[in-house]
Write a structure and sequence with these properties.
Number of strands of chain B: 0
CATH superfamily of the domain at 88-282 in chain B: MetI-like
Helix content of chain A: 10-25%
Strand order of the largest sheet of chain A: 14-21-13-20-18-19
Order of helices and strands of chain B: HHHHHHHHHHHHH
Number of helices of chain B: 13
Shape of chain A: globular
Number of helices of chain A: 16
Helix content of chain B: over 70%
Oligomer: heterodimer
Radius of gyration of chain A: 24 Å
CATH class of the domain at 88-282 in chain B: Mainly Alpha
C-alpha cells in the first residue's frame, strides 16, 4: 500500500515480468505490455483464489520443486542470504517521495505501515493494534502498539505519524501520494500557509492519534495507515514550503520495517540486513538482496544467482520452470485489469449499443488468452478476481458473438453502406485506436482489424513507441479507443479511479456517482460488497470503458525457501520476515 | 597554433550554446512531459506539479533557467531518480567507460594486426578467411550473440557469470575484487569487440593496401631494407595516419554507454539510464547527458585535428 511511485516502465521490457511489491505505481502502461512493476504479487501458498473462476494457464496449483539436487552450487552455498530480482531500483527509498515502483518495493521492506491488508485486501492491524471510526465515518483514531521503535532504536510515537501526514500537505510536496485528496480537515489551510498545523490531526497521547476528514471515504483507513516517517530524522530540517532537504536522505533511510538498508550499489544491488528492532521480532534470514535485473531474469534463475523471480504465466515459461527441477512455482493473478478507454465525446461511442457491439464483436479470447499462451483471462468488471468485491453474479460475460454485434449496430442505426463500411447520417463508422508498441498490441491490432472489418467498422490503428506521447495524444482527444491497464488496485474504489481524476471525466451518470459515494460512505465490508456488486453490474452493462483482460503470472523461487507467500497487495513484504532457508 | 586554438575554442563555445538551445527545445517539444505519464493524477494535481517543477513556464524561459544553473555547475536533480544529475553520472558512467575502454583498446589492437597481415597477404587464403569471418561478425545481431554466449558459457557450462559486474552479495576487495570484475567483463567485452572489429579491420586493410602500392615502399625495398622494417616502419605509420580522425569519434563513444550490451549483460551503465529517462521525459538528466556527449564530441574533433597536425607536419592548422 505504498501510495506513491510512478512506475518506470521501459516498454522495451518484453521479457519476464519482474518482481514487484506493493508500489502503488501509477503508470498505466498499455494493457498489452508486460508491466514489470505493476505492483503485485501472488497468491498465498494456501491459495485462496478461486481456481474455477481463474484457471491459471497451465498451472492452477502451486508446484513443488522435484529435484533440489539440481540447485546450482552458488545457491546451495547461501545460508543466511536470500536474493530476489528487481528490475531497477533508483535509490529514492523514502516512502511518499519516490517516483518509481521499484523504489517502492525497496521501501516496503524498510518501513512498516500502521495498517496492512490481508490477501483479500481487507485491512488488518500492523503498527496500529486497533482503530476506531466515528459514527459519522469522518474521524479515525489509531491506537499504536507500545514500545515501537525505528531501526536505530528511537521510539515511534503518534508525533511521527502526525508529521508524516502533515508534510504530504506541504505546498512543495511533489510525490504522488493520494493522501491530500482525502481532504483532511484543515489540510488545505495548511497548504495555503494560512495555518501552521493541520486542524484535523490530533495527537491524543504518544500511542493515540486521530484524524478528521471533510467527507467520508472508505479508502481513508488504508491511505492514512501507510508508512511512518521519523520526525526526529526526516523532520529535523523541515521548514514549511521546502522539502528539498529530504532528497539528501533518500539513500540513508531510517525505517521500522523487517529490514534495514545495508548498502545500495546503483544499477546492481540493494543489500538489506535484518532489523533487530522490528516490532514482530528480527526476521529469520539475516541478509536479503534485491538484485537489479534490467534485462532478462532467466539467466539468473537458471544459474542460481537469484532465488525468486516472476514470469508471465505462458505455457512455455511454466514448462521451462518445471524442467529446472529446483524451483517451486506459485500461480498468481495481479490486482489489476486491462481495459480500452473509450472516447465518450465521440458521437458514435456515446451510444451504449455501439460499445456493447464492440465487446461482442471483439474476439477477446483469442487476443488475451490464446495468443498470450494462457497468460491471461478475460475481464468484464473493473476489479481483479482476487479482490473481496469480485463477483460474476449478474455479469454479462460478452462471449464473442459477431452476429449479436451486427444486430446491435443495426439497432443503433449504423447500416452497411457502400464499400461494406457502416454509415449513419452519411458518416462512416471509424474506430481510431491507439496502443503502445509491444507484441501484445500487434496481436490486438491483427485480430481487431479482422473482427471490426467483419462488422463493417473502419479500424485505424496507431502505435506509439513512447508512452508519454500516447498519453499526450489521448489528452488531445484525438482517438476512439486506447489500451491501458490499471496500476495496482488495493481498494475496490481504486478500480473506478479513472472516472474521477484520470482521463474519463465524460461519463456523466448520476446513478454511478450515487453508488460510488454510497460504497465509500461506510467501512463495513459486507455492506460495501453489495454496493460494488451493483456498480459492477452497472458498468458491465453500460461499458463506459471496455474491459479486456487480467494478467497471469507465476512466481518461481528456490525450493529451499520455506514459509514464502506473496500478497497481491503488499507483495513480499508481509511474509518475508518469516522466510527461511532449509 | 595558439591563435588557431583560441579561435577553435571560441567556435566550440558557440557551437555548444547553439546545440544546447536546440537540444533543449527538441526535448521540450516532444509530446508529453514528466507528469503526463502518471495518468492517475487529477488534472488539478498535474497542474500543481507542473508549477512545482516549472514545467508550465514558456520554453525559452525554462531554457534560460537551466542554462543559468548549468553555468553555475548545477545540473539539477533527476526527476525520476530524485538524485543530483552529476551524482548519477558518477554512479553509472565509469561502468560504461570501463567496458568501452577495454573493448575499444582490444578492437584497435586486433584490427591493426589482422588488417596489416590481410593487406600484406592480399588474396591469400588467410585474407579470404579473415574477410569472411569479419563480415560474419559484423552481421550478427548483438542481442543474439550476447544471449547465445550467455546460454553456452554461463548457463550450460557455468564458466563465466551470466551478467552484472560483481557476484551478487560479494564483499570482495583488492585482488579478489579485481578478478571478479574481470570475469564479469569478459563476455560483454568479447561481444563489443566482435561487433566493432569488422569495420575497423577493413579500414586498416584498405589503407595498408594503398600504402603498399606507393613508390616509397618500392624504394625502401630496393634499398634492401628488411621486409619487417618496410612493413612496420614505413608502411604502417602512413597507413595509421588517417585513423587519427577516428580517435576523435571514439571519445564520446567511450562515455556514452551501450544500451543493448548493458541490457543483455545487466551491466550498470549509463546507456540504460539515458534511454529510460527519455521515455520518462526526465529533462534534467536528458539535458545533462546530451550536453556531456556534445562537449566530448567537440573536444574529440579538436583532439583529432591537433593530433593530425602533430603526426603529419604537412597539415597546416
Amino acid at each position: 500500500m505504498r501510495k506513491n511511485a510512478i512506475v518506470i516502465t521501459s516498454l522495451l521490457l518484453t521479457g519476464s515480468l519482474l518482481l514487484s511489491a506493493c508500489a502503488n505505481n501509477s503508470n498505466n502502461e498499455s494493457s498489452s505490455a508486460n508491466n514489470a512493476a505493476a505492483g503485485s504479487n501472488s497468491t498465498n501458498v494456501e491459495a485462496t483464489t478461486t481456481p474455477e473462476t481463474v484457471p491459471a494457464g497451465a498451472l492452477s496449483e502451486p508446484f513443488t520443486a522435484t529435484d533440489l539436487s539440481k540447485l546450482p552450487a552458488v545457491a546451495q552455498k547461501r545460508t543466511d542470504t536470500i536474493i530476489v530480482g528487481l528490475t531497477d531500483p533508483s535509490g529514492a527509498f523514502t516512502p511518499y517521495f519516490q517516483q518509481s515502483g521499484y523504489d517502492g518495493n525497496v521501501s516496503s521492506l524498510l518501513y512498516a505501515s500502521l495498517v496492512t491488508v490481508d490477501d483479500k485486501g481487507v485491512p488488518t492491524p500492523e503498527l496500529a493494534e486497533s482503530w476506531d471510526v466515528s459514527d459519522d465515518q469522518l474521524t479515525y483514531t489509531f491506537h499504536l502498539r507500545k514500545d515501537l521503535k525505528f531501526s536505530d532504536g528511537s521510539p515511534l510515537t503518534a508525533d511521527d505519524v502526525a508529521f508524516t501526514w502533515t508534510i504530504q500537505y506541504d505546498k512543495s510536496y511533489d510525490g504522488s501520494s493520494q493522501l491530500p485528496s482525502l481532504n483532511v480537515k484543515g489540510g488545505k489551510a495548511y497548504k495555503e500557509g494560512t495555518s501552521t498545523a493541520i486542524e484535523g490531526i490530533k495527537v491524543i497521547d504518544p500511542q493515540t492519534i486521530s484524524v478528521t476528514l471533510e467527507q467520508p471515504n472508505a479508502t481513508a483507513l488504508v491511505q492514512l495507515g501507510s508508512n511512518v516517517l521519523s520526525k526526529a530524522y526526516y523532520g529535523k530540517d523541515y521548514k514549511f514550503g521546502d522539502l528539498e532537504y529530504i532528497k539528501k536522505l533518500h539513500e540513508k533511510p531510517l525505517g521500522d520495517g523487517p529490514y534495514k538498508l545495508e548498502k545500495f550499489i546503483p544499477g546492481q544491488e540493494v543489500r538489506f540486513v535484518a532489523n533487530e528492532n522490528y516490532f514482530k521480532g528480527k526476521p529469520k534470514t539475516e541478509h536479503f538482496i534485491y538484485k537489479t535485473t534490467e534485462g532478462d531474469v532467466w539467466q539468473f534463475v537458471e544459474t542460481g544467482e537469484v532465488d525468486y523471480a516472476s514470469f508471465s504465466a505462458t505455457d512455455e515459461n511454466i514448462e521451462k520452470l518445471k524442467a529446472l527441477g529446483f524451483v517451486n512455482i506459485i500461480p498468481y493473478t495481479p490486482s489489476t485489469y486491462g481495459y480500452l478507454q473509450v472516447n465518450l465525446k465521440h458521437e458514435q461511442l456515446k451510444d451504449k449499443l455501439v460499445r456493447q457491439a464492440i465487446v461482442y464483436g471483439l474476439d477477446r479470447q483469442s487476443i488475451y488468452v490464446d495468443a498470450a499462451q494462457g497468460a491471461g483471462s478475460i475481464a468484464n468488471i473493473p476489479a481483479s478476481p482476487i479482490s473481496w468485491s469480485y463477483t460474476e453474479e449478474g455479469i454479462n460475460p460478452y462471449k464473442y458473438d459477431p452476429e449479436k454485434a451486427k444486430q446491435l449496430l443495426d439497432e443503433a442505426g449504423w447500416t452497411v453502406g457502400a464499400g461494406g463500411i457502416r454509415e449513419k447520417d452519411g458518416k462512416p463508422l471509424t474506430i481510431h485506436y491507439l496502443g503502445s508498441k509491444s507484441k501484445n498490441t500487434d496481436i490486438f491490432i491483427a485480430v481487431a482489424k479482422e473482427n471490426f472489418e467483419a462488422l463493417g467498422i473502419d479500424f485505424q490503428p496507431e502505435v506509439f513507441a513512447d508512452f508519454n506521447s500516447l498519453v499526450s495524444k489521448v489528452e488531445g482527444g484525438d482517438y476512439d479507443l486506447v489500451s491501458f491497464s490499471t496500476s495496482m488496485l488495493t481498494d475496490p474504489a481504486d478500480g473506478f479511479m479513472q472516472f474521477f481524476d484520470g482521463e474519463i471525466t465524460d461519463y456523466d451518470n448520476p446513478k454511478f456517482l450515487e453508488l460510488y459515494n454510497k460504497a465509500l460512505a461506510t467501512t463495513d465490508i459486507e455492506a460495501r460488497k453489495a454496493v460494488y456488486k451493483e456498480l459492477y453490474q452497472l458498468f458491465n452493462d453500460e461499458l463506459p470503458i471496455i474491459f479486456t483482460s487480467y494478467k497471469k503470472t507465476v512466481y518461481a523461487y528456490n525450493g529451499r525457501i520455506e514459509n514464502l507467500s506473496v500478497s497481491p497487495f503488499i507483495g513480499l513484504a508481509g511474509s518475508l520476515p518469516t522466510w527461511s532457508l532449509k | 597554433m595558439s591563435a588557431y586554438l583560441s579561435k577553435r575554442l571560441l567556435y566550440m563555445v558557440i557551437i555548444l550554446f547553439a546545440a544546447s538551445l536546440l537540444i533543449f527545445c527538441l526535448y521540450a517539444s516532444t509530446p508529453g512531459d514528466f507528469i503526463t505519464g502518471n495518468i492517475k493524477l487529477t488534472a488539478e494535481r498535474k497542474a500543481e506539479l507542473r508549477e512545482i517543477y516549472g514545467l508550465n513556464k514558456p520554453m525559452l524561459e525554462r531554457y534560460g533557467i537551466w542554462m543559468k544553473n548549468a553555468l553555475h555547475g548545477d545540473f539539477g536533480y533527476s526527476l525520476a531518480q530524485q538524485k543530483p544529475v552529476l551524482q548519477l553520472f558518477n554512479d553509472y558512467i565509469w561502468n560504461s567507460f570501463l567496458l568501452a575502454a577495454v573493448s575499444t583498446f582490444l578492437t584497435w589492437v586486433i584490427a591493426v594486426i589482422i588488417g596489416v597481415i590481410s593487406a600484406y597477404k592480399q588474396y591469400s587464403w588467410f585474407d579470404t578467411l579473415v574477410m569472411i569471418a569479419i563480415f560474419a561478425a559484423m552481421s550478427l545481431p548483438s542481442f543474439f550473440i550476447g544471449l547465445f554466449l550467455i546460454k553456452i558459457l554461463a548457463v550450460d557450462l557455468k564458466w563465466l557469470p551470466p551478467g552484472g559486474i560483481i557476484t551478487t552479495g560479494s564483499n570482495a576487495t583488492g585482488l579478489a575484487y579485481f578478478k571478479e570484475i574481470v570475469t564479469h567483463m569478459t563476455l560483454p567485452v568479447v561481444v563489443m569487440t566482435l561487433l566493432g572489429l569488422g569495420s575497423l579491420t577493413r579500414y586498416f586493410r584498405s589503407n595498408m593496401i594503398d600504402v603498399l602500392k606507393q613508390d616509397y615502399i618500392r624504394t625502401a625495398r630496393a634499398k634492401g631494407l628488411r621486409e619487417r622494417k618496410v612493413l612496420f616502419t614505413h608502411a604502417l605509420r602512413n597507413a595509421l595516419l588517417p585513423a587519427i580522425t577516428l580517435v576523435g569519434f571514439e571519445l564520446p563513444a567511450l562515455f556514452g554507454g551501450s544500451l543493448i550490451i548493458e541490457k543483455i549483460f545487466n551491466w550498470p551503465g549509463i546507456g540504460q539510464l539515458y534511454m529510460q529517462s527519455f521515455g520518462l521525459r526526465d529533462y534534467p538528466l536528458l539535458m545533462g547527458f546530451t550536453m556531456f556527449i556534445a562537449i566530448l564530441t567537440v573536444i574529440g574533433t579538436l583532439l583529432s585535428d591537433v593530433l593530425y597536425r602533430i603526426a603529419d607536419p604537412r597539415v597546416r592548422l
